[in-house]
């Protein structure tokens, strides 16, 4: 049995897109792993402990016997609640004798302090976890390709040949997949030499909006053009799915990215996945090809889109 197989892993946020990818990556590698989530789901990626991150007793139960923990916070942007979450995690990790925390900030963080809760709550949580005394690795990802696979983006893509997203056309983005995040998180959990590091981790290609649309066009064999989606409209649509508070928090990321100060927020080194984490990154075209885009089309089969 290897050292990694003797460890006990815990994934916070294991039923979400990002945490779920980490949980699956650990399970696929044969690691003993359980998840923590606010509520049960029909087909969890790993065995679950349910509870709220603000409930110290529930979090302590999840940490019982755990050696390594992957942390992805929910889409909550109230500073008081996020601070409570981070302190609860830090205390549980110290009490359990956890040997490694890996924290996914959900987004790239600007070098300067901003007025946007999506950045500043994650920055505050990072400091609390760092002060816990538990060896910490911080991963700061950019934008996920999975953000594009939904009825709004997919419907416009399939029916109108429009790839709409709330970023200016000229913004360079190192688009990352959830699976590649999972691979990076597992490497950060397992490699002692990464302890104490903070890593901006993006995908293997840095592209602007029109360049992204060109990849879609070549892969899907159809005309695709990029259109900057108004952030207000983006927030309204997101609010229907996530609620107003979460939508406002997420939208703040794109408001900042649309400013001069945020021009290079997502322009990350494309060699980090393979070089730092030893992961085989997913090309954008391969990810596009693998998605069932027809699911989002409202045009009947046989009719022109």
Topology of helices and strands:
Elements: H1 3-6, E1 9-12, H2 17-28, E2 33-37, E3 48-50, H3 56-63, E4 68-72, H4 79-96, E5 100-104, H5 117-130, E6 136-140, H6 151-160, E7 162-165, H7 178-190, E8 198-200, H8 209-220, E9 225-228, H9 231-242, H10 244-257, H11 272-275, H12 284-290
Parallel strand pairs: 1-2, 1-4, 2-3, 4-5, 5-6, 6-8, 7-9
InterPro entries: NAD(P)-bd_dom_sf, NmrA-like, NmrA-like_oxidored
Pfam family, one: NmrA
Domain NmrA-like: 10-248
Detailed description of the structure:
- With 305 residues, the protein is of the alpha/beta class.
- The protein has a domain at 3-142 and 177-202 and 268-281: 3-Layer(aba) Sandwich (Rossmann fold).
- It has 12 helices and 9 strands.
- The chain has helices at residues 3-6, 17-28, 56-63, 79-96, 117-130, 151-160, 178-190, 209-220, 231-242, 244-257, 272-275, 284-290; strands at residues 9-12, 33-37, 48-50, 68-72, 100-104, 136-140, 162-165, 198-200, 225-228.
- The protein has a 7-stranded parallel β-sheet, with helices on both faces. The chain has a two-stranded parallel ribbon with strand order 7-9.
- Strand 1 (9-12), helix 2 and strand 2 (33-37) form a beta-alpha-beta unit.
- The longest helix has 18 residues, at 79-96.
- It starts with a helix and ends in a 15-residue tail after the last helix.
- 45% of the residues are buried.
- The model has no long low-confidence stretch (mean pLDDT 95).
- InterPro entries: NAD(P)-bd_dom_sf (IPR036291), NmrA-like (IPR008030), NmrA-like_oxidored (IPR051164).
- It holds the Pfam family NmrA.
- It comes from Plantactinospora endophytica.
- Residues 10-248 form the NmrA-like domain.
- Keywords: NADP.
